[in-house]
Design a protein that fits this description.
By secondary structure, the protein is mostly helical. It has twelve helices and three strands; from the N terminus they run H-E-H-E-H-E-H-H-H-H-H-H-H-H-H. The chain has a three-stranded parallel β-sheet with strand order 1-2-3, sandwiched between helices. The radius of gyration is 23 Å and the shape is elongated. The two termini are 46 Å apart.
Protein backbone atom coordinates (compact mmCIF):
# COMPACT_ATOMS: atom_id res chain seq x y z
CA UNK A 1 0.00 0.00 0.00
CA UNK A 2 1.27 3.49 -0.87
CA UNK A 3 0.24 6.84 0.62
CA UNK A 4 0.50 10.20 -1.16
CA UNK A 5 0.72 13.60 0.51
CA UNK A 6 -0.98 15.46 -2.33
CA UNK A 7 -2.50 15.03 -5.77
CA UNK A 8 0.77 15.38 -7.66
CA UNK A 9 2.39 12.60 -5.66
CA UNK A 10 -0.74 10.47 -6.05
CA UNK A 11 -0.49 10.74 -9.84
CA UNK A 12 3.20 9.86 -9.78
CA UNK A 13 2.68 6.83 -7.54
CA UNK A 14 -0.26 5.60 -9.60
CA UNK A 15 1.78 5.82 -12.80
CA UNK A 16 4.80 4.00 -11.37
CA UNK A 17 3.19 1.47 -9.01
CA UNK A 18 0.03 0.69 -11.05
CA UNK A 19 -2.14 -0.12 -8.00
CA UNK A 20 -5.21 -2.37 -8.11
CA UNK A 21 -7.35 0.41 -6.63
CA UNK A 22 -6.92 4.11 -5.74
CA UNK A 23 -8.62 5.81 -2.76
CA UNK A 24 -8.84 9.60 -3.02
CA UNK A 25 -10.05 12.19 -0.56
CA UNK A 26 -12.04 14.82 -2.44
CA UNK A 27 -10.33 17.57 -0.42
CA UNK A 28 -6.60 17.14 -1.14
CA UNK A 29 -3.71 19.65 -1.10
CA UNK A 30 -2.80 21.11 -4.49
CA UNK A 31 -5.62 19.62 -6.53
CA UNK A 32 -8.88 17.98 -5.54
CA UNK A 33 -9.42 14.25 -5.49
CA UNK A 34 -11.90 14.74 -8.32
CA UNK A 35 -9.21 16.39 -10.46
CA UNK A 36 -6.75 13.59 -9.69
CA UNK A 37 -9.41 11.04 -10.62
CA UNK A 38 -10.00 12.74 -13.97
CA UNK A 39 -6.29 12.68 -14.78
CA UNK A 40 -5.99 9.02 -13.81
CA UNK A 41 -8.88 8.14 -16.11
CA UNK A 42 -7.32 10.10 -18.98
CA UNK A 43 -3.94 8.32 -18.73
CA UNK A 44 -3.66 5.09 -20.71
CA UNK A 45 -1.71 3.34 -17.91
CA UNK A 46 -4.36 4.01 -15.24
CA UNK A 47 -7.60 4.59 -17.16
CA UNK A 48 -8.97 1.19 -16.09
CA UNK A 49 -7.80 1.41 -12.45
CA UNK A 50 -10.80 1.60 -10.08
CA UNK A 51 -10.99 4.90 -8.18
CA UNK A 52 -12.95 5.35 -4.94
CA UNK A 53 -13.64 8.95 -3.89
CA UNK A 54 -14.02 9.75 -0.18
CA UNK A 55 -15.95 12.89 0.71
CA UNK A 56 -16.96 14.67 3.87
CA UNK A 57 -20.17 15.61 2.11
CA UNK A 58 -22.44 13.19 0.29
CA UNK A 59 -24.25 15.88 -1.63
CA UNK A 60 -25.37 15.36 -5.21
CA UNK A 61 -22.90 17.92 -6.63
CA UNK A 62 -19.84 16.02 -5.35
CA UNK A 63 -21.15 12.72 -6.67
CA UNK A 64 -22.00 14.20 -10.06
CA UNK A 65 -18.54 15.78 -10.33
CA UNK A 66 -16.98 12.46 -9.33
CA UNK A 67 -18.99 10.51 -11.89
CA UNK A 68 -18.02 13.01 -14.57
CA UNK A 69 -14.36 12.52 -13.60
CA UNK A 70 -14.76 8.75 -13.94
CA UNK A 71 -14.93 7.66 -10.28
CA UNK A 72 -16.01 4.04 -9.81
CA UNK A 73 -17.33 4.32 -6.24
CA UNK A 74 -17.92 6.78 -3.37
CA UNK A 75 -17.61 6.72 0.41
CA UNK A 76 -18.71 9.34 2.91
CA UNK A 77 -16.90 10.40 6.07
CA UNK A 78 -16.73 9.15 8.72
CA UNK A 79 -15.66 6.00 6.88
CA UNK A 80 -16.93 2.69 8.21
CA UNK A 81 -13.94 0.29 8.17
CA UNK A 82 -15.98 -2.77 7.19
CA UNK A 83 -17.67 -0.87 4.38
CA UNK A 84 -14.28 0.39 3.20
CA UNK A 85 -12.89 -3.15 3.13
CA UNK A 86 -15.91 -4.39 1.19
CA UNK A 87 -15.70 -1.58 -1.38
CA UNK A 88 -11.94 -2.06 -1.85
CA UNK A 89 -12.34 -5.83 -2.26
CA UNK A 90 -15.02 -5.26 -4.86
CA UNK A 91 -12.84 -2.76 -6.72
CA UNK A 92 -9.88 -5.17 -6.71
CA UNK A 93 -12.06 -7.95 -8.14
CA UNK A 94 -13.15 -5.55 -10.88
CA UNK A 95 -9.52 -4.64 -11.64
CA UNK A 96 -8.49 -8.27 -11.93
CA UNK A 97 -11.37 -9.03 -14.26
CA UNK A 98 -10.29 -6.03 -16.33
CA UNK A 99 -6.72 -7.35 -16.41
CA UNK A 100 -8.04 -10.65 -17.75
CA UNK A 101 -9.88 -8.73 -20.48
CA UNK A 102 -6.66 -6.89 -21.31
CA UNK A 103 -4.92 -10.25 -21.69
CA UNK A 104 -7.64 -11.29 -24.12
CA UNK A 105 -7.18 -8.02 -25.99
CA UNK A 106 -3.42 -8.67 -26.16
CA UNK A 107 -4.27 -11.99 -27.81
CA UNK A 108 -6.26 -10.12 -30.46
CA UNK A 109 -3.31 -7.81 -31.11
CA UNK A 110 -1.12 -10.89 -31.51
CA UNK A 111 -3.61 -12.28 -34.01
CA UNK A 112 -3.29 -9.01 -35.93
CA UNK A 113 0.46 -9.57 -36.17
CA UNK A 114 -0.09 -13.18 -37.23
CA UNK A 115 -2.24 -11.97 -40.12
CA UNK A 116 0.52 -9.53 -41.05
CA UNK A 117 3.17 -12.28 -40.87
CA UNK A 118 1.30 -14.41 -43.42
CA UNK A 119 2.25 -11.93 -46.12
CA UNK A 120 5.95 -10.98 -46.38
CA UNK A 121 4.98 -7.78 -48.19
CA UNK A 122 3.07 -6.43 -45.18
CA UNK A 123 5.79 -6.85 -42.53
CA UNK A 124 5.61 -3.92 -40.11
CA UNK A 125 2.37 -2.69 -41.69
CA UNK A 126 0.36 -2.63 -38.44
CA UNK A 127 3.01 -0.74 -36.48
CA UNK A 128 3.44 1.85 -39.22
CA UNK A 129 -0.31 2.31 -39.52
CA UNK A 130 -0.62 2.78 -35.76
CA UNK A 131 2.06 5.48 -35.84
CA UNK A 132 0.62 7.24 -38.89
CA UNK A 133 -2.94 7.13 -37.54
CA UNK A 134 -2.08 8.47 -34.09
CA UNK A 135 0.10 11.20 -35.63
CA UNK A 136 -2.83 12.32 -37.78
CA UNK A 137 -5.21 12.07 -34.83
CA UNK A 138 -2.84 14.21 -32.77
CA UNK A 139 -2.68 16.80 -35.56
CA UNK A 140 -6.49 16.88 -35.49
CA UNK A 141 -6.42 17.41 -31.69
CA UNK A 142 -8.52 14.31 -31.04
CA UNK A 143 -9.04 13.28 -27.39
CA UNK A 144 -6.81 10.61 -25.88
CA UNK A 145 -9.56 7.99 -26.01
CA UNK A 146 -9.75 8.41 -29.80
CA UNK A 147 -5.95 8.24 -30.12
CA UNK A 148 -5.95 4.98 -28.16
CA UNK A 149 -8.71 3.61 -30.39
CA UNK A 150 -6.75 4.64 -33.49
CA UNK A 151 -3.62 2.88 -32.26
CA UNK A 152 -5.43 -0.36 -31.44
CA UNK A 153 -7.69 -0.13 -34.47
CA UNK A 154 -4.68 0.22 -36.77
CA UNK A 155 -3.27 -3.01 -35.37
CA UNK A 156 -6.59 -4.82 -35.71
CA UNK A 157 -7.97 -3.31 -38.92
CA UNK A 158 -7.26 -6.44 -40.99
CA UNK A 159 -7.73 -9.07 -38.27
CA UNK A 160 -10.61 -10.56 -40.27
CA UNK A 161 -8.07 -11.68 -42.89
CA UNK A 162 -7.23 -14.54 -40.56
CA UNK A 163 -10.28 -16.25 -42.10
CA UNK A 164 -9.29 -15.52 -45.73
CA UNK A 165 -7.64 -18.45 -47.60
CA UNK A 166 -3.97 -18.02 -48.54
CA UNK A 167 -4.87 -18.68 -52.18
CA UNK A 168 -6.77 -15.38 -52.15
CA UNK A 169 -4.90 -13.36 -49.52
CA UNK A 170 -1.44 -14.03 -51.00
CA UNK A 171 -2.43 -14.05 -54.66
CA UNK A 172 0.02 -12.16 -56.91
CA UNK A 173 -2.53 -11.87 -59.70
CA UNK A 174 -5.69 -9.81 -59.91
CA UNK A 175 -8.52 -11.43 -57.97
CA UNK A 176 -11.52 -12.78 -59.83
CA UNK A 177 -14.81 -11.05 -58.88
CA UNK A 178 -15.89 -14.02 -56.74
CA UNK A 179 -12.50 -14.04 -54.97
CA UNK A 180 -12.72 -10.31 -54.30
CA UNK A 181 -16.12 -10.86 -52.68
CA UNK A 182 -14.44 -13.33 -50.31
CA UNK A 183 -11.64 -10.85 -49.60
CA UNK A 184 -14.14 -8.09 -48.79
CA UNK A 185 -15.62 -10.30 -46.08
CA UNK A 186 -12.58 -9.65 -43.90
CA UNK A 187 -14.01 -6.31 -42.71
CA UNK A 188 -17.21 -7.93 -41.42
CA UNK A 189 -15.38 -10.93 -39.97
CA UNK A 190 -12.98 -8.62 -38.14
CA UNK A 191 -15.89 -6.63 -36.71
CA UNK A 192 -17.55 -9.84 -35.51
CA UNK A 193 -14.31 -10.99 -33.86
CA UNK A 194 -13.88 -7.67 -32.03
CA UNK A 195 -17.53 -7.78 -30.91
CA UNK A 196 -16.62 -10.68 -28.60
CA UNK A 197 -14.61 -8.29 -26.38
CA UNK A 198 -16.37 -5.28 -24.87
CA UNK A 199 -13.01 -3.53 -24.43
CA UNK A 200 -12.65 -3.45 -28.23
CA UNK A 201 -15.98 -1.69 -28.81
CA UNK A 202 -14.25 1.57 -29.77
CA UNK A 203 -12.19 -0.07 -32.52
CA UNK A 204 -15.08 -1.89 -34.22
CA UNK A 205 -16.03 1.05 -36.49
CA UNK A 206 -12.41 1.20 -37.68
CA UNK A 207 -12.22 -2.53 -38.36
CA UNK A 208 -15.55 -2.63 -40.19
CA UNK A 209 -15.41 0.63 -42.16
CA UNK A 210 -11.76 1.28 -43.11
CA UNK A 211 -12.53 0.30 -46.74
CA UNK A 212 -15.53 2.61 -47.14
CA UNK A 213 -15.24 5.43 -49.68
CA UNK A 214 -16.52 8.96 -49.26
CA UNK A 215 -18.52 8.61 -52.49
CA UNK A 216 -20.29 5.48 -51.22
CA UNK A 217 -18.40 3.06 -53.46
CA UNK A 218 -16.57 1.22 -50.69
CA UNK A 219 -17.40 -1.82 -48.58
CA UNK A 220 -18.87 -3.57 -46.63
CA UNK A 221 -21.84 -1.22 -46.07
CA UNK A 222 -21.51 1.35 -48.86
CA UNK A 223 -21.43 4.26 -46.40
CA UNK A 224 -20.74 7.74 -47.74
CA UNK A 225 -19.67 11.14 -46.45
CA UNK A 226 -20.14 11.72 -42.75
CA UNK A 227 -21.79 8.30 -42.39
CA UNK A 228 -18.25 6.90 -42.28
CA UNK A 229 -16.83 7.19 -38.74
CA UNK A 230 -13.96 9.69 -38.57
CA UNK A 231 -11.51 7.18 -37.08
CA UNK A 232 -12.21 4.76 -39.93
CA UNK A 233 -11.62 7.58 -42.44
CA UNK A 234 -8.26 8.29 -40.79
CA UNK A 235 -7.17 4.66 -40.96
CA UNK A 236 -8.23 4.46 -44.61
CA UNK A 237 -6.00 7.42 -45.51
CA UNK A 238 -2.92 6.02 -43.77
CA UNK A 239 -3.64 2.48 -45.01
CA UNK A 240 -3.60 3.69 -48.62
CA UNK A 241 -0.41 5.69 -47.99
CA UNK A 242 1.39 2.71 -46.46
CA UNK A 243 0.29 0.45 -49.32
CA UNK A 244 1.69 2.96 -51.83
CA UNK A 245 5.05 3.38 -50.07
CA UNK A 246 5.88 -0.31 -49.49
CA UNK A 247 6.89 -3.05 -51.92
CA UNK A 248 4.09 -5.15 -53.38
CA UNK A 249 4.21 -8.32 -55.51
CA UNK A 250 3.19 -6.31 -58.58
CA UNK A 251 5.35 -3.17 -58.08
CA UNK A 252 8.11 -1.51 -56.10
CA UNK A 253 7.38 1.03 -53.37
CA UNK A 254 6.52 4.50 -54.63
CA UNK A 255 8.30 7.62 -53.44
CA UNK A 256 6.69 9.58 -50.62
CA UNK A 257 6.06 12.57 -52.90
CA UNK A 258 4.35 10.41 -55.53
CA UNK A 259 2.28 8.74 -52.80
CA UNK A 260 1.20 12.19 -51.60
CA UNK A 261 0.03 13.07 -55.11
CA UNK A 262 -1.85 9.78 -55.48
CA UNK A 263 -3.57 10.33 -52.12
CA UNK A 264 -4.72 13.75 -53.32
CA UNK A 265 -5.99 12.19 -56.56
CA UNK A 266 -7.84 9.53 -54.53
CA UNK A 267 -9.51 12.27 -52.50
CA UNK A 268 -10.53 14.19 -55.63
CA UNK A 269 -11.98 10.94 -57.03
CA UNK A 270 -14.21 10.53 -53.96
CA UNK A 271 -12.18 7.96 -52.09
CA UNK A 272 -11.43 9.95 -48.96
CA UNK A 273 -11.56 13.39 -47.37
CA UNK A 274 -9.39 16.05 -49.00
CA UNK A 275 -8.96 17.84 -45.66
CA UNK A 276 -7.79 14.62 -43.96
CA UNK A 277 -5.29 13.97 -46.74
CA UNK A 278 -3.95 17.52 -46.45
CA UNK A 279 -3.61 17.24 -42.66
CA UNK A 280 -1.88 13.86 -43.02
CA UNK A 281 0.60 15.21 -45.57
CA UNK A 282 1.35 18.20 -43.32
CA UNK A 283 1.86 16.00 -40.25
CA UNK A 284 3.87 13.34 -42.09
CA UNK A 285 6.15 15.79 -43.91
CA UNK A 286 6.87 17.69 -40.68
CA UNK A 287 8.16 14.47 -39.14
CA UNK A 288 10.84 14.44 -41.80
CA UNK A 289 9.68 11.11 -43.17
Amino acid sequence: MHTARDGTEALRLAATELPDVVLLDVMMPGMTGTEVCARLKQASATCLTPVVLISGSGDRHNRLAGRTAGADDFLNKPVDVEELQARVSSAIRLKRLTDELESAEALFLTLGRIVEARDPYTEGHCERLAQYATALGTALHLPQADLDALYRGAFLHDIGKIAIPDSILLSERSLAPCEFEVMKRHAVIGDELCATLRSLEAVRPIVRHHHERLDGGGYPDGLSGDEIPLLAQIVRVVDVFDALTTNRPYRQALSVQLAYRMLIEDAHAGGCSTSLVERFIDAHSQQGA
